Amino acid sequence: MKVLVSFFNRIMQRYLPDPFLFVIILTFVVFGLGLIFTDNGPYQMVQHWGNGFWGLLTFSMQMVLVLVTGHVLACSTIFKKGLGALASLAKSPGQAILIVSFVSMIASLINWGFGLVIGALFAKELAKKVKNVDYRLLIASAYAGFVVWHGGISGSIPLTIATPGHFSEEMIGVISTDQTIFAGFNIFIVVALLLVLPFVNRFMMPSKEETIVVDPALLQEDIQAASIEKEAMTPAERLENSRLISLLAGIFGLVFLFYYFAAKGFNLNLDIVNFLFLFLGILFHGTPKRFLEAVLNAVKGASGIIIQFPFYAGIMGMMTASGLAAVMSEAFVSISNDYTFHFFAFLSAGLVNFFVPSGGGQWAVQAPIMLEAAQSMGASIPKTAMAVAWGDAWTNLIQPFWALPALAIAGLKAKDIMGFCVLTLLVSGVIISIGFLFF
């Protein structure tokens, strides 16, 4: 396994471009595929690209806030002590890899945004506590835990079809989560990944000569506010350094969260995760000045999301409006039978996800084709939906789109972790395939 990891790492270091260049290249690839496999001409493809370019603005802002609020919360004294105490459980590099893998997967099963941020933050704390642990593998292990999210309680596809009024209700009705998230085949996949992936990550530990460690001092992000004598403060400076202001604002936010959870139960979504992180950050930093200095420090890592997500939205526009995503899906359906259908649905979703890295967007594109095919073959509709869901989650492992927040928190580049993620992709692909072929 170490030989394979070393090989994949060399390949990625040598050939994987910066994520911004990657999305530019991907744009031209999709443009070319649209010309070859659909009836659209060059001008039409450019139109689809431009029309979709700003389609992810809301989601982009949500992802920026996931990064910023998570980063701000992580550099607060209270949160660092909590993560540090948990990180102290690891006494060796191997234990650090096992713990971060497991914690990341559990967090991702609860909520994908929560898992994406917590995994990276926890990995950084482990790098401070554990000597001689490969920093790249720590972050890769944290990110690899994200693969289980669509099989958890925040999975967008199973939750969509469980909601009355969803766009395909006339075709399939409302399907409860006991047939999708809590079905036997899905539980098998989740449990198998929870048991296997931490050890896969552990066995990927490079040799001592190839291990890359990081100086813990470089990971410290203490926010030191300039000290001003209380007597010398202006009225404005007194407000900026007021603990009462932060306390009142924090309590205001927590009261709303209490109301929200009391009314809707433990229903986490991206907005609520950001809301929670934001107001805990305000509380934990003590004063508005310290909080704003932490925000300023955190925003520096958000440039990749701000610039690259519109290009992915443009790619999604070309994929959906040109019909290219439908062509890809139909190609897999054409070679399926009633036994292999869910397996090929999973593979097709994995391919489409590479170009349409959004669970909800991908389902909107693939659902009409996959559901019609499933009905014609007499295949399970809930299992079909979950096959698309797992395909969407699976190839996220080698899709820089979702890695950007974790990489920004870690201070790494995509090529630093993708070599490890390739092997995780192969192993997890086998496990998920078994789940759809034999359960």
Q: Your description of this structure?
A:
- This protein is 73% helix and 0% strand.
- The protein has 22 helices and no strands.
- It has helices at residues 2-15, 19-37, 42-52, 57-74, 77-87, 93-110, 112-129, 135-144, 156-161, 169-172, 184-203, 235-240, 243-264, 270-285, 288-299, 303-321, 324-334, 341-355, 359-377, 381-394, 400-410, 414-438.
- It has 439 residues and is mainly alpha-helical.
- The chain starts with a helix and ends with a helix.
- Pfam families: SCFA_trans (PF02667).
User: Would you tell me the overall average pLDDT?
Assistant: 90
Q: Tally the beta strands.
A: 0
Proportion of beta-strand residues: under 5%
Based on Cα principal axes, name the global outline: globular
Q: Figure out the total of helices.
A: 22
Structural class: mainly alpha
Q: What is the terminal-to-terminal distance?
A: 28 Å
Poorly predicted sequence stretches spanning 5 or more consecutive residues? none
Percent of residues in helical segments?
over 70%
- Reading the helices and strands in chain order gives HHHHHHHHHHHHHHHHHHHHHH
Largest sheet: none
Please give the radius of gyration in angstroms.
23 Å
Transmembrane segments: 20-41, 53-79, 99-123, 135-161, 181-200, 244-262, 268-284, 305-327, 339-356, 417-438
Protein name: Short-chain fatty acid transporter
Keywords: Membrane, Transmembrane, Transmembrane helix
Organism: Cytobacillus oceanisediminis
What are the key terms here?
globular, mainly alpha, 22 helices, 439 residues, 73% helix
